[in-house]
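Re: weekly structure request thread

Next one in the queue (101 aa):
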Amino acid sequence: MTYMTYTGRMRLIDSQEWHGKQMLKPGYRKAYDALEVEYQIIDSVLRKRLELDMTQADLARKIKSDQSVISRLEAGTYNPSIKFLKRVAKALGTKLTVSLA
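Done, posted below.
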């Protein structure tokens, strides 16, 4: 998924391009790696929701929650339970899978 973002110089850049450059920095890479699972969850939920052309409010209604909860989940500021993620997965027409590697 590609997003456009502004840099400090107010230049619009591709977020994947920006992320790739940041991953070359050891501190950024270490922090990113520490949060990899969270980012995978966020990315999966967001991609599936957009694929289904659902708003955050639509998804929230399907799981009997508030839009703000979905917003916090997608922003990475909410630490969801497995039970909550299973409800989200069901509402998105998929299932939650967990793997220990």
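The two ends are 25 Å apart (CA to CA). Residues 17 and 60 are 31 Å apart (CA to CA).
Next request, please.
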